[in-house]
Amino acid sequence: MRLSHFAKVAAVAAAAVLTATACGGQSPSLGSSGAAPSVAQGASFEAGTTMEKLNKAQALRLGTKFDQPLFGLKGLDGKPAGFDVEIAKIIAAKLGIPADKISYTEAPSAVREEVIEQDRVDMVVATYTINDKRKERITFAGPYYVAGQDLMVKSDNTTITGPESLKAANAKVCSVSGSTPSEKIKQYIDPANLTLFDVYSKCADALRTGQVDVVTTDNVILTGLIENSSGAFKLVNKKFTEEPYGIGVKKGDVKFCEFVNKTLKEAEADGSYKAAWDSTLAKVSPDVPPLPAAGTCS
Ligand code: GLU
User: Fold this and answer.
1) Of 36, 39, 182, 256, whose CB neighbour count within 10 A is largest?
2) Does ligand 1 lie within 6 Å of residue 217's CB atom?
3) Is there a contact between 61 and 121 (Cβ–Cβ < 8 Å)?
């Protein structure tokens, strides 16, 4: 089921690349944000909770990616746009905070726990896989989506067919420090062949210039980079991990985590989750996936 879903993602991405190329540039809608979800007027929250604090402040500090098309890509207006940003807007709206009161901090993979611990953001929505190691430092709400690790190569590459083919091809692989894909790829390659940057756009540049042969991270992140590559890159389309995306909040803030989980459920029921999908990821994968079952907040 998942495989065919991602086969579809790849096919639609290829079609989108054609469209983008025909227009002589990247898809104009890529950086746009969706319709703002309606803000909960007069929302009131239990005293002393993060929800009350944020509602009173009428401000939400979000940690997200700035260079990931479809999830968090900084546009010409200086604001990031994408599915992660739309998820954050849904949560802000339920807190009674309008979208224009969200401030954005770039949160590359390696510093996501840190920006939460240092109270530089109220939450991180940034293609952030829920795992036990990270749970030692922060609390995760969600998941709100499940991705999977894959490989991206130049469109004319025929030797890389999946992670098992990397050793024989002596492939140079690029990923990002502090990401789960950078760890999981190690079992498939000679460590000397792994290059790590702080953000994925640098890996895409390295692939373009031939410094590396492969970029590895979550399939949907790669699909966004492919959509922006004017036909230069393709997805190998052999998903080999599960990456459930969570919303990172301060360690132990169970009430805020439960509020976020309830908000996600409501967003699925009232159509705002679908609207977030439709304005972002639907470009490469039209079918809205079901919201995954929530984990426990701890
Ligand atoms: N989902 C993976 C992670 O959280 C890869 C994507 C990313 O680096 O943001 O590490």
Assistant:
1) 256
2) yes
3) yes
Say yes or no: do domains 50-146+244-283 and 149-235 share a fold: yes
CA of 293 relative to ligand 1 center, distance in Å: 20
* pLDDT at res. 22: 31
CATH number 2.30.29.30 given to 50-146+244-283: no
The packing angle between helices 254-270 and 50-57, to 10°, is: 70
Q: Cβ(150) to ligand 1 under 6 A?
A: no
Instruction: Please write the tens of the pLDDT for every residue from 13-56.
Output: 443 333 333 333 333 333 344 556 889 888 899 999 999 999 99
Give me ligand 1 centre to Cα 63, in Å: 14
Calculate mean pLDDT across residues 255-280.
98
Atom of ligand 1 nearest to the CA of 200: 8
- The CATH class, in words, for 149-235 is alpha beta
- CA of 243 from ligand 1 middle (Å) equals 8
- What are the pLDDT digits (tens) for 136-173? 999 999 999 999 999 999 999 999 999 999 999 999 99
- Kindly list the domain boundaries of the chain, sorted by start residue: 50-146+244-283, 149-235
Going from the Cα of 24 to the center of ligand 1, the distance in angstroms, rounded, reads 31
Question: Which atom of ligand 1 is least distant from the CA of 181?
Answer: 5
| pLDDT at residue 128 in the model | 98
Q: What is the mean pLDDT of the chain?
A: 90
